[in-house]
């Protein structure tokens, strides 16, 4: 899951799995299969994916993308 604005996006095979497990819609966007969930439902959807025995990685956006935060880059890994 990758945070993009106010939603978390799934891509490719992950989007297909998320659509099936979470009951959400997936669609093709620029040759990539996409699915997404709003940020305020993150905990619910992560819990449902873990309950279905999938490993879940979440990438959160830090800052506005035009700056580097404490030398770590623009993305942090949240587990």
From TrEMBL:
One Pfam family here: MutS_I
Protein name per the record: DNA mismatch repair protein MutS-like N-terminal domain-containing protein
All copies of domain DNA mismatch repair protein MutS-like N-terminal, residue ranges: 1-60
Q: Give the matching InterPro entries.
A: DNA_mismatch_repair_MutS-lik_N, DNA_mismatch_repair_MutS_N
Q: Name one GO biological process term.
A: mismatch repair
Question: What is an example of a GO molecular function annotated in this UniProt entry?
Answer: ATP binding
């Amino acid at each position: 899951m990758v945070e993009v604005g106010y939603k978390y996006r799934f891509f490719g095979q992950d989007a297909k799995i998320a659509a099936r497990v979470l009951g959400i819609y997936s669609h093709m966007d620029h040759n990539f299969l996409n699915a997404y969930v709003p940020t305020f439902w993150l905990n619910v959807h992560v819990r449902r994916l873990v309950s279905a025995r999938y490993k879940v990685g979440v990438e959160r956006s830090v800052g506005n993308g035009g700056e580097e935060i404490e030398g770590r880059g623009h993305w942090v890994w949240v587990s």
